[in-house]
Amino acid sequence: MASTKAVVATLTTKCANKTSVACVVNGTTEVDVPLSSSSSSFYVPNGVEYIEYFPSQPTTMSVSTNEMTTFDTVTLPESLQSINLDINDYDVFNVDAPTFIVLKNASVYTDRIIRPTAACTGTKQTFNGTPFPPSKFSKPTSALVHTACVVAPVAATT
To answer: Whose CA is closest to 146, among 121, 119, 111, 122?
Structure first.
């Protein structure tokens, strides 16, 4: 099933490997991300503009340093407890209601404030980020308050 996402222009994709646990898209390139069924972490090491679909039961997800620009009505699994969105500047951050609940309940790490675009067609709702702990390389950070555009799911067409 093809899906359309707004990136820089309209881009229609169809991930090749439907048995893969995830598919990420970078420009016109699609990358299937295989994980073992016992894996609870979802880490995308490559540059990515958006994620087509996610594994079903990860507890952690990291798409940090990927230069991801679009987070558009992807449903996050309820199992997520920790999400690292660090070093991504989102032009679009649209979520459905179940994903917003995941964002509110999970530890969301990012160094940039997430704000929806002015073209938000849903309701703007806030969620709290999680401060980064101190390390030998950095001081602790403050928790950021983020805003998502919560949109109604698109009805399936027949």
So the answer is: 111
